């Protein structure tokens, strides 16, 4: 075994790992592999053994090393940008990546959730959404020499949520999940619109009950928590706290139980039925007039 091979750490063999082993690194900014610092080899071993997309951005130029999962994300750019500065690998993201490298080499970490980017991949521009985590790679003296990047492609989930939001808005249906232990609810944007709540308002069952007509509070979820399904279909009136306007809301939900933990989730929908209620009143009044003739 030669000296270069003896310095290498063990990681998953075959495929792209073999390509990395066989590449003549003397023609890259990293230089001959025999001269690589131990921490780079150690980090490369970690990255190559991982099943999630990971990359190393080495030095101030962010020279790229990455694993098979990252290569799959990169598409046709792989393997041409292996060993190249990240500004050349992803020129459309040069400003963002330069900032990331600068901050991480200053010893700080960065995290982004559902970060939108437009990248060129497989011959076309694509919108992607990503979870990104960056942390410094330090030598034995604690000096940052590179950046460890972990990527998760959330594009499918984000697009699904976008389609759902459009469908909810078009259909006037809001969704929610209720947590009786804390009283809080996770709600969609359309649910907030139906209840007249802004985006910054923390939605709780106490708040929602306070917005109901006093005569309708007995059919709210908290009042029926002892029932097998406290979210059975119900119709109630919401009173606008500013204008005093009365809006009718219908709610339907179900309890989702976990067989293993025994815990229950309370999931449902709400929709504004004011127009229907007004039509019913108009029809009733018309029928009463006809009967009076």
UniProtKB/TrEMBL annotation:
Catalytic reaction annotation: ATP + protein L-histidine = ADP + protein N-phospho-L-histidine
UniProt entry tagged with the keyword Phosphoprotein: yes
Leader sequence segment: none
Entries under Gene3D superfamilies matching the protein: 2.10.70.100, PAS domain
Enzyme Commission number(s): 2.7.13.3
Pfam families documented for this protein: PAS_3, PAS_4
UniProt protein name: histidine kinase
């Amino acid at each position: 075994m030669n000296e270069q091979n003896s310095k290498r750490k063990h990681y998953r063999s075959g495929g792209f790992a073999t390509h990395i082993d066989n590449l003549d690194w003397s023609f890259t900014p990293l230089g001959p592999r025999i001269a690589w610092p131990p921490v780079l080899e150690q980090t490369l071993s970690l990255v190559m053994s991982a099943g999630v997309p990971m990359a190393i951005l080495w030095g101030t130029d962010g020279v790229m090393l990455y694993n098979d999962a990252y290569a799959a994300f990169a598409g046709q750019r792989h393997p041409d940008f292996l060993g190249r500065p990240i500004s050349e690998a992803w020129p459309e993201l040069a400003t963002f990546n330069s900032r990331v490298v600068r901050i991480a080499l200053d010893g700080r970490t960065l995290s982004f959730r559902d970060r939108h980017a437009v990248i060129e991949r497989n011959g076309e521009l694509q919108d992607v959404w990503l979870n990104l985590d960056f942390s410094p790679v330090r030598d034995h003296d604690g000096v940052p020499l590179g950046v460890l990047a972990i990527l998760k492609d959330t594009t499918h989930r984000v697009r699904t949520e976008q389609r759902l939001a459009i469908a909810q808005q078009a259909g006037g249906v809001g969704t929610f999940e209720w947590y009786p232990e804390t009283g809080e609810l996770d709600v969609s944007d359309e649910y907030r619109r139906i209840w007249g709540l802004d985006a910054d308002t923390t939605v709780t069952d106490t708040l929602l009950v306070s917005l109901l007509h006093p005569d309708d509070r007995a059919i709210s979820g908290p009042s029926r928590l002892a029932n097998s399904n406290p979210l059975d279909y119900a119709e109630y009136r919401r009173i606008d706290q500013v204008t005093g306007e009365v809006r009718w809301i219908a709610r339907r939900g179900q309890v989702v139980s976990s067989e293993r933990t025994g815990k229950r989730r309370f999931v449902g929908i709400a929709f504004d039925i004011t127009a229907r209620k007004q039509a019913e009143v108009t029809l009733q009044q018309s029928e009463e007039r006809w009967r009076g003739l």
